Amino acid sequence: MDGRALDEGARRSQSQQAKNAFVHMIAQLKAAKSTGQRVYLGVSDAIAENMDLLEELLRNYRLADVTIVTFSEAKFKEVAATLRKGLGLAGGVATVATDQITKDDADD
Amino acid sequence: MKKLRGGPARAQGASVVEELERLAKASKMPDTIYAVARRIAEGEDKAKFVGALDKLLRGAAKQFDEEVVTGVLRRAADAVDPLAFLDNVEWIMERTGLSAEARKALVRQAVLRDSPLDLRWLRELTDLPDDMLEYMALDKTTNWRSFMKVSKKPSDYFPSSLKKLLKNTDYADAAVKLRGVAGELMFVVEDVELPGGLKIVARPGRRGREGDRLCSARCKRSAGDARG
User: Fold this and answer.
1) Which residues pair with A89 in a beta bridge?
2) Local structure of residue B151 (DSSP, 8 states)
3) What is the interface size between A and B, counted as CB pairs within 8 Å?
4) β-strands B199-202, B218-220 pairing
5) How many domains does the structure of chain A reveal?
6) Which of A57, B77, B101, B223 has the most C-beta neighbours closer than 10 Å?
7) A12 in a domain, yes or no?
């Protein structure tokens, strides 16, 4: 397999993980909505440029009434770093980005 | 711990026995009392152990449910160093900067969970700010095991020798959990405002029909109504 094929494989794998994470998020939002309570979705400001797309997708899945709460990615990283240092965690425990969470991982 | 002799030592022993007799009615307590008595009899420093038990039963134990007292005594009886274990319980209960509820919750997590929190690790090898520890203590779903497992600093449950056996999935698991805790802490510690004055109060353990979490956090308004 040449380098280009490997890059393409990695890109597809990442894309599939992102799809899985999105499907999982939609399932969680629908489950939360089914309780009859108001539903809030916390979203990092790192995806600000894709916010319109997110709102459109939520509308497509009949989740337009979900309230999006934006939080600062910089603050999030700061808190995560303090937490990681405080718990004495190894370097391998990096803060994962949203698209790195697969369906199996994302139960917490 | 001051070592008593003669009359005062006998009085201290009698006080411990009296307190244990009072507790004996609680479920699982007879087994625990037997384990403690055996440990006193077999231990090298009986007087110091009795002294530590006396301090616990007269002080911190008054704040615990009977279930937690049973757990503390049981863990002390089984510990390699029961004096150190009881000292760590006293340390938590005397720690300033945490609410009484958070202190009690940490002891509960150290003695009643199947995968318990190692108080020695928490005391000597971590350095969490009070507000973060408070939140993690009060959250019943905080999975200390995942963090102890991958911590650079070994705990009694995950000594250095076991670190070599860790897999990438252990680190990934801790990373995901860290992300979840950090995401919620940001709203609590940094006081980022949620809409409508909502506050995060807990992460739920219950699951929806398809096994999915109903939501990542439970919130409530100051009026007290819950929101997912």
Assistant:
1) B151
2) B
3) 128
4) antiparallel
5) 1
6) B77
7) yes
- Total domains in chain B come to 1
d(CA B100, CA B89): 13
pLDDT in tens, A34-90: 988 888 888 888 888 889 999 999 999 999 999 888 888 888 889 999 999 999 986
Q: What is the dihedral of CA A64, A65, A68, A69, to 10 degrees?
A: 180
**Would residue B40 count as lying in a domain?**
yes
Q: Do A90 and B189 touch (CB under 8 A)?
A: no
Q: How open is the CA angle A27-A34-A55, to the nearest 5 degrees?
A: 55
Task: Look at residue B154 and tell me if it is in a domain.
Answer: no
Two tokens, residue B104 = 């009690």
Q: Which of residues 50-89 of A touch B (CB under 8 A)?
A: 67, 69, 71-72, 75-76, 79-80, 82-89
Q: Report the SS3 class of residue B159.
A: coil
- Contact flag B182-A83 (C-beta cutoff 8 Å): yes
Alpha-carbon span B147 to B119, nearest angstrom: 13
Does A106 reside within a domain? no
Q: What domain range is A25 assigned to?
A: 3-100
- Helix orientation angle between B66-78 and B100-111, rounded to the nearest 10 degrees: 50
In a domain, B67, yes or no: yes
Which residues make Cβ contacts (< 8 Å) with residue A104, sequence separation at least 6? none
* B115 in any annotated domain: no
Question: ipTM of this complex > 0.85?
Answer: no
**Interface contact flag, B183 A42, Cβ < 8 Å:** yes
